[in-house]
């Protein structure tokens, strides 16, 4: 009896000490709300540019079954036990916030720059369609039917606008699924009853599956947060000035709206009147408490000290800032190979339907008929627009004191090829998995 009581007391004490929070990036494992992460199905056609998959958009149905380590591995002091390797993750920047890690997931700390920037410009609707076509991996966007895509179509045809996007990423860690995953039981049951052929009579069943589980699943991600500038600008700026000029000016909009005092803002935190008056820019925050703030813009810029306050909330509420997708058919077990082939065909058909809808929308909006500005294609645009500082020119009467001529700024720290970096980490996960299977010491990585 005494032994049983002591065992219960010991179990209660162990339970009280056990780590409670799963590492960020595990599908459906959020402590407060369901989260999108590795092992989640994703509907590729609905992703937004440079944004994480939205938890509210999905039913958070996991594709992969999370496999917890043994309970004692989550009690402080046991993380170094041989059977508990990789079961606890601690970021060196936050040593007092350890996380539980499932045994089917490999987590490593990101040791690169804490922040980096990535920029892209879309000159035309055709350019967007080419860059957002069929692909199985990307840095956070490839959709045809997202709100960003439809907004761009509207602005492109009605306002003669092109699109520039600048993203500042905050990265803490990478999270990768180990090879040889076990499927979620509900998911496996569903694929077992899928038809073995795709045709007109089975299309509805496959499209229902896609609407429930998606077209792809997330197999790896960099976790953190991001600030994304979306800038629609008069298309003539590309031919009149240059793509580099647009990059500089959109950078000026970013720092002018979001972080005027940022260490990288020198030379970027000034925007010319020409760009200011012929563009519409906004900044959105992803991760941390960013969602509650909505859009920031020139009339609603970020207040002093806000950036740091927001960044301080990121570590406890991270999002997949960069993620890699794999087609769902690739993970089907061998006994469902016919269903996998049929699903692959249905995904192509699903995207074709969406592509046709978007083409129809584009045709209904085009051709572009708005008159071009008087300065369009002029290699030397009016000095009244370009050279005047805010307050000196009535054309910039609504601008802020940050508007001025921007000298060539130093280059922003560019993000490395993040998908290539994720590929490196997937190979590392394979090496670790093989070592654990063979019962030998896993390799160490710098």
UniProtKB/TrEMBL annotation:
Signal peptide: 1-16
UniProt xrefs under PROSITE patterns: MACPF_2
Alphabetized GO MF terms: wide pore channel activity
GO BP annotations listed: defense response to virus
Any Pfam family matching the protein: MACPF
Ranges where the MACPF domain occurs: 23-365
GO cellular component entries: membrane
Alphabetically ordered keywords of this record: Signal
InterPro entries: MACPF (IPR020864), Perforin-1_pore-forming (IPR052784)
Protein name: MACPF domain-containing protein
Organism: Cafeteria roenbergensis (Marine flagellate)
Lineage per the UniProt record: Eukaryota, Sar, Stramenopiles, Bigyra, Opalozoa
């Amino acid at each position: 009896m005494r032994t049983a009581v002591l065992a219960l007391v010991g179990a209660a004490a162990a339970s009280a000490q056990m780590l409670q929070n799963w590492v960020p990036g595990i599908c459906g494992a959020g402590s407060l709300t369901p989260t999108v992460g590795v092992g989640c199905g994703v509907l590729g056609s609905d992703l937004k540019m440079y944004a994480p998959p939205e938890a509210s958009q999905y039913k958070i149905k996991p594709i992969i079954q999370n496999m917890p380590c043994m309970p004692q591995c989550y009690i402080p002091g046991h993380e170094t036990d041989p059977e508990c390797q990789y079961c606890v993750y601690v970021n060196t920047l936050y040593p007092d916030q350890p996380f539980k890690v499932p045994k089917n997931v490999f987590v490593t700390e990101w040791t690169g720059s804490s922040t980096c920037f990535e920029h892209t410009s879309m000159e035309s609707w055709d350019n967007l369609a080419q860059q957002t076509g069929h692909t199985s991996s990307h840095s956070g966007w490839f959709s045809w039917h997202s709100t960003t895509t439809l907004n761009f179509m509207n602005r492109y045809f009605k306002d003669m606008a092109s699109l520039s996007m600048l993203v500042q990423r905050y990265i803490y860690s990478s999270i990768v699924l180990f090879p040889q995953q076990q499927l979620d039981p509900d998911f496996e049951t569903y694929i077992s009853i899928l038809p073995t052929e795709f045709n007109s009579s089975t299309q509805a069943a496959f499209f229902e599956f896609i609407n429930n589980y998606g077209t792809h699943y997330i197999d790896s991600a960099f976790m953190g947060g991001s600030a994304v500038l979306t800038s629609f600008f008069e298309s003539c700026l590309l031919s009149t000035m240059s793509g580099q000029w647009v990059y500089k000016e959109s950078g000026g909009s970013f720092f002018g709206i979001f972080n005027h005092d940022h260490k990288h803002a020198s030379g970027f935190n000034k925007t010319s009147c020409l760009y200011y008056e012929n563009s519409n820019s906004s900044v959105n925050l992803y991760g941390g408490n960013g969602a509650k703030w909505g859009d920031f813009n020139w009339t609603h810029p970020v207040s002093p000290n806000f950036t740091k306050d927001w960044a301080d909330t990121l570590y406890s509420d991270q999002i997949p800032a960069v993620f890699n997708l794999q087609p769902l058919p690739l993970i089907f077990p061998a006994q469902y190979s016919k269903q996998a082939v049929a699903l692959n065909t249905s995904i192509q058909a699903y995207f074709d339907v969406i592509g046709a809808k978007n083409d129809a929308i584009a045709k209904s909006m085009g051709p572009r008929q708005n008159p071009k500005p008087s300065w369009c294609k002029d290699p030397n645009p009016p000095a009244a627009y370009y050279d005047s500082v805010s307050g000196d020119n009535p054309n910039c009467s609504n601008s802020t004191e940050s508007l001025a001529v921007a000298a060539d700024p130093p280059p922003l720290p560019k993000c490395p090829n993040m998908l290539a970096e994720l590929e490196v980490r997937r190979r590392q996960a394979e090496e670790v998995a093989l070592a654990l299977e063979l019962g030998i010491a896993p390799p160490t990585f710098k």
